[in-house]
Amino acid sequence: MSTGQQDRTGVFGLMLLAVAFVFAVIVSNQLFSGVRLDLTENRLYTLSDGTKRILDEIDEPINLYFYFSNEATRGIPSLRDYAVRVREMLEEIEDNSDGKVRLQVVDPLPFSEDEDRAVQFGLQGLQLGVTPDPVYMGLAGTNSVGDEETIAFFQPDQEASLEYDIAKLVSTLADPERTVIGLVSGVPISGEFDPQSQRMGQPWIVYQQARQLFEIRDLGTSFESIPEEVGLLWIVQPKDLSVETQYAIDQFVMRGGRALIFVDPVASIDVATTPGMPQGMPAAGQSSDLPLLFDGWGIDYSAQQVVTDAQFALRINSGLGGPPVRHYGYLGVSADGMNQEDATTAELSALNLAMAGEIRLVEGSTATFEPLITSSVSSMLKPASQFAFLPDPASLQDGFVPRGDALVIAARIGGTLPSAFPGGPPGSGETSGSENAAEITHLDESASAANLVVVADVDMLTDPLWVQLQSFFGQQLANAFASNGAFVVNALESLAGDANLVSVRSRGSFSRPFTKVDELRVEAEARFRETEQRLQSELADTERRLGELQATREDSGSLLLTPEQQAEIDRFTDQRASIRKELRAVQRGLDEDIEKFGTTLKVINIGLVPILLTAGVLLVLWRRRRESRS
Fold first, then answer.
1. CATH topology of domain 51-171
2. Is the pLDDT of residue 593 over 90?
3. What is the pTM of this model?
4. Measuring CA to CA, how many Å separate 258 from each of 269, 497, 534, 611, 630?
């Protein structure tokens, strides 16, 4: 064969190979559309069991309409990529619904009937600047009785909650009746009237999220009966509740009512600030407690003690002009401090708390006790009074001696509970102020297994500890940097009896905290603090000696230093230089330890993993070749 023929054959072969490759790609795209191999740690791209159970429980067909402006986003590849992610999730939900969920993908072209329909649903058309036409990327759903639910716009930075948001919409359409929650709050969680602007303030974000799932009724803080339709109590920062109100809560729980209770030894949201105080430093802590009910139910909680933690401590601005310092009372609880067996806390990324308390059962209690949030073993209790005025949070490290065991901050309490009013209603034999009180039979113990979630921190509900408000094309959007809101909604959903959504929400922890680095930093800070205290002790000792030498001088009025005084000052100067050198060595040692740890990780990820993968591939090829020869 001539060289020209060989060249033509080679070119023809390459053309055939290219055609075969294109054909294979087209066929594979058609045959394996939507098929993927999910290798993520938490299987983030696979429907959770909770979503599948929600789909199995659908009785009537549900129609979903995914409105995405395909033409208007030609020049926005990032948004188009996320739209594919949303559509694939919706298609997977449709495929797993056995025909109960029907999906339609709609491109709402400008001035079309589809766009009018999207507007009627309440979907948002955003003006992104790169295109003159509004961009839609939202979801609308309807059920057989005409109920409508929508997701106005899918935010790409909220991908972690994508499955939960869609599952919540489907669940709401499948069961439109929402649990009624009775709110008993001593702080303005639902918003309060601002006398200056003469307008109502915005509700807390966690309240807004709960209101999307439940019907919330504000019961106030003074009542003698609870409406029958209320199935769950949400008690926040209870202070000085009347005996009659506590009796109503007690009997509600005795009759099988469920409750989510937030108390706090030092609630910074509920304090009056003093001018000139550093931000985040309360002038006077306002505690909350239910001593009558807790004592009767066998719950041990002290409003006089705060959990401090060296490992989970957060860095905050002290307000003194220096760098951020670790505040042992402000905790960033990682997954290690959360119950991974309970759907309320399973796989949440992080929870931020402030000056929380401890919860446990009294000795001899027959109730069940399941910790949900705990401190690390590097923790101890400190008096709440120490936090009333704390100009230097670093002072919490003084005298810090870890107990060696984790302290429970939040717990699920169940089983048979005794009534906090064993003698009957308050003022028995007298006329009650409530007509219903006489009609309801008093119970001395819970008629069915109780279900309570008690949390010894109220500040975790406040916006600054877990969510950041941002303006997104004129819309106020909340971006969560901690899982506080998810924890509250999970707790409410689990108490309300809908555990399916809980298992969906608790998936997908994208945060990978450097726990090893945190441990190194805690150890280094302890050494640094110890060395610094030794320096201060040496300084005080030197000042004392100088004073003694000055007192023994005959010419005590002289300003000249004696040889003994000069020698003492020189000795201290040398000692101070030595200790400061130690302080720098401690800090350098921390940086070196972290750098060595980072280098080790880089070697493993960049070098070792590719080598192992290559060796694995070569081993497979060698075995196949060996088998083919044999």
1. Glutaredoxin (3.40.30)
2. no
3. 0.62
4. 26, 10, 53, 55, 69
